[in-house]
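From the thread on structure requests for the teaching lab: each student submitted one protein with a one-line request. Submission from student K.M.:

"Model Cystine/glutamate transporter from Anabas testudineus, C-alpha cells only."
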Amino acid sequence: SLDCRFVLILKRFLTPKQMRKEKTEDEVVHLRREIGLLPAVSFIIGIVVGSGIFIAPKGVLMNSGSVGLSLLVWALCGVLSMFGALCFAELGTSFTKSGSQYTYLLETLGPLPAFLRLWVTFIFTRPASVSYVSLAFGRYVVEPFFAPCAAPIVLIKLVTVCVSAAFVVALNCWSVTTASRIQVTLTFTKMFALVLIIVPGFMALVKGERTKPLSLTLATLPIAFYNGLYAYGGWTNLNCITEEVINPNRNIPLAIILSMVTVTIFYVLVNVAYYTMMTPSELLMSDAVAVTFANRALPGLALVIPILVALSCFGTLNGGYFTSPRTLFVGAREGHWPSIFSMIHIRRRTPLPAVLLQYPLVILMLFGGEIYQLITFSSFAGWFFVALTTLGMLVHRYRFPLHPRPFKVPAVIAVIFTVVCFFIVGLSLYSDPWNTGRSCALMLTGIPVYYLTVQRFRLPNRFKYISDYFSMHLQLLLEVVQQEIQTY
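Reply posted by the TA:
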C-alpha cells in the first residue's frame, strides 16, 4: 500500500547509517563514477556539435555581412571557447562537486549569484537552448518530405515535442549507462556527417570555385559572435557531472582540450565548405543549411544528410538532458531548490525529478519564439554567467592562493576570456536591446525569489506545508530518495 511504501521511504531518512549497514555498496543509492575519458570526450563533442553548425552559419553571416569576416568570427569563437574551457578545466579539478557554474559561483562569489544562475538556467536559458535544438531536429526530419516547399511549422513542433524531447527524457530517466553509450555512438555519427560536408566542399575549392563577398556590417557583429558562440556552446556541461567522472583530475582537462581542438578545426573547415558550394544569398535564404548544401554538393546523398543532422541534434539533446539536471540536483542538495529535485530513483540511479522538470518548460518555450530570437534571448544570460564564473575563479585565486588546483590555467587566458565575454554581453544590449533586455529582466526576477524563499523563508507557512505535501507524494510516485553517501 502507499502507507507502507511511505514508511519504508521515511526510514531511509530517519536512520540512514543503520540502513547503509544492511546494504552492500552496490545497493546504496547514489550517483556512480561511470564516465571514463571516451564518454567524457563524447559528451563535450556530442553537445557542442549539434544543431549549431547547421543553423548558426546563417546567423553569423547575416550579422557579420562578409564571408571573410564570418570565417574569422568562427575561428575567434573557437579560440575564445577554448580559453573558457581551460578555465573550467581548472574549476572542475579545484572543486570536486558536480553542478558546473552553479557550484563554482557558490564557492567563489556566494549564494546569491549561484541561485541566480540556477534560476536563469532552469526557468528560461536551458528550456530555450533545448527548444532551438529540438526545433532544428524537427526541421531536418520534416523538411525533406516537403522540399522544395517550406514545411508546416505546426508539424515541425509536433515532431519536436513527441519524438525528440519526450524520447530523450525517457532515455535519461531509464539508465545512466545506456544514455552514455548512445552518446558515444551519436558523437561518431555526427563527426561522420561533418566529414561528408567538408570533403566535397574542399574538392570544389581545389577546382577554384568561390563565393561573392557581402557588405561589412559592424553594428550587429556581437550578434554574429553570439551565433558562433552558440554553435560552440556546451563545453561547460562536463563539469555538471564531475562526481560521475572517473579520475576527474586527469580526465576533465584532457577531455576538454581534445574536444575543443577537434571542434574548432572541424567548424572552420565546414564553413569553408559551405561558402565554397553556396553563395551568401543562398545560405541566407536557407532555414536548413546542410540540406541546401547536400542538394548542391551531394545530390546522391541528399536524403542522408538530413538524417545525420537530425541524429546530431539528438545527440546534443541527449547530452544536455544527461548533464544539466545534475546542476538542479546539486542546487536542491544545497537547499536552493525544492528537496524533491535532489533525489535519485532507487533502482535506476538517475536524478529522475530533475530530468523530468525540463520537459514541460521546453514545451512552453517551443511555442514562444522564433529560433534566432531564442539564441540571442538565452545567450545573454548564459554568457554573462560564464564571465561571472571565470571572474569568480580569479577572485578565488587571489583570496585563497594555497587552495589545491591540480590543473591551473595561465592567468592571462582567464583575464582575456572574462574581459571579452563581458564586452560582448555589453555590446549585445546595444545590438539587440529587446531580446537581451528581456533576458536581463527575467534574470533579475530571481533576486526577490531568493530573498523570499532561500535566504530566509518569508512566505506564509501554508506555502511550505503545500510544498512538503506535494514533495512527499511525488517521492512516493517517482520512487526516489536522497543519495545515501557523499560523492564529493
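TA comment: The two ends are 36 Å apart (CA to CA). Residues 111-142 form the longest helix (32 residues).
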